[in-house]
Task: structure prediction
Amino acid sequence: MAASTKAVSLLKRALALSPSPPRGPPRAVGRLRGGGRRSQQQRRVPAEPLTPPPAAPRLQPPPCTALCPQDSLECGLRTCYRYLNQTSRSFAAVIQALDGELRHAVCIFYLVLRALDTIEDDMTISLDVKVPMLHEFHSYLYQPEWKYMESKEKDRQVLEDFPTISMEFRNLSKVYQDVISDICHKMGVGMAEFLEKKVDSQHEWDKYCHYVAGLVGIGLSRLFSASELEDAIVGQDTELANSMGLFLQKTNIIRDYLEDQMEGREFWPREVWSRYAKKLSDLAKPENIDMAVQCLNELITNALHHVPDVLTYLSRLKNQTVFNFCAIPQVMAIATLAACYNNRQVFRGVVKIRKGQAVTLMMDATNIQAVKAIMYQYVEEIYQKIPSTDPSSNKTQQIIASIRAMSLPSGPMASRHHYSPIYLSCAMLLAALSWQYLSTISKATEDYVQAGEK
Result:
C-alpha cells in the first residue's frame, strides 16, 4: 500500500511537470542539447522561404512556490527545475525520474549546457565576443554575479538568471562540480572550433558529434559513477560513453537531412556525400534519388558501428533509473535508423516511428536482454532491406553480423530485478508523456514541412 501511494504521488507530480507542446518549427528531437549545431558561417546560408514561426515567448522567472520533484527543495533548486521543464520537453521527465542527488546534478548539468548552447546559438553576438565567451564559459560557474542580458534567444532566461543556476552548481558536491565544469570547458572549446568550419571528413564528423553529444555522454557517465549508483568503470570508459552520444547524434543528423537543408544547415560529411552529388542539396532533387538513397545507406552503416559499444555500455549499468535514462534513447535511435534505411522519404519529408511503436519500446527497454532483442529485431529489419546493388551492402552486412552476435537471445526477456509498483507506474507515466510529446512534435513538424512547400 505504501508503495502504491508513493507511485500515485509521483504520478501526480510528474503530470504537473509534463512538457508543454512545442511552439513554432521544432528542433530535432531527442538531443540533450537541442540537437545539431550550425556554424556562424552556415547560418548565413539562405534557407528556403518559410512561413516565419511565431515569436518565442520570454521565459518568466518562476516563483519559489513552483512545484518540483521534492516540495522541500530550496527556492533556487525549485527555480532550476522549472527552467528544466521550460527548456527541455523531451528530457525533463526522464531526468526527474533519476534517483537521489544524481537527479539534481543532471538537472544542473543540463541547464549549464543549455546556457552555453544559447550563447553559441545567438547570431546577434559577434564572433569577437562569442569566441572568448565560449572558451571562458566554464569559469562563469564560479562567478556568483555573472549573467548575460543581451541574448535574443528564446531560452535567454537561463543566461539572465545564470546566478541562480551557478549558485546551485556550487551547492553540488565537488565531485559533481568538477565533472560539469570540465565538460562545459571542453564543449565550449569545441563549439568555438566549429563556428566557421564545415564538416568535411568522416573524422571531422566524429569530432563534431563528440563535441555536441559525445561529451554529454562522457559527462553523464562520470556523474553516474560519482553518485556511486554505478561502478567507476562506467565513468572511466570514455570511449563507450562517447559512442553512446555519437550514435544518437548521427541518427538525428541522418534523419533530419531535409529539415536542416530547409534551414540552411549542413551536417552530412562532405567526404561521403561528394561521392554521390556535386552539392549536398542536390540529393533532394527527384532525378538524384537513387544516388541519394545510396549516400543515406552509407551514413546509416557508419552509425551502426556504434551499436556494439552501446550494448557493452548498457550491460554495465546496475541502477534501474539510470538504465532507463540511457536505454530508451538508444532503442529509439535504432528504430529510427531502421525506418530511414533505403527510404526515399528521408529526402521528401519526415520519417518517424509510429507512436504506438515508441510506447512499446519505452515499456520494453528495461533490461539488457530486452534491449539486445530490440537491437536484433531492427538490424534484421535493415538486413532485409539491403539492396544487392548498394555500394555499402557488404559493409552493412558485416556490421549487422557483429551486432547479431552480441544480440542473440540468451534466455527469456525477464528483468534482472523484480520491479516495484513505483517503477512500473513511472514506466507507464513516461510512456504516456512520450506519446503525447511525439504527437505534438509530429503535428508541428508536418505543419513546418507543409509551410516550406508553399
User: Anything to note?
Assistant: Confidence is low (pLDDT under 50) at residues 1-72, 411-425, 434-454. The radius of gyration is 21 Å. The CA atoms of residues 182 and 307 lie 27 Å apart.
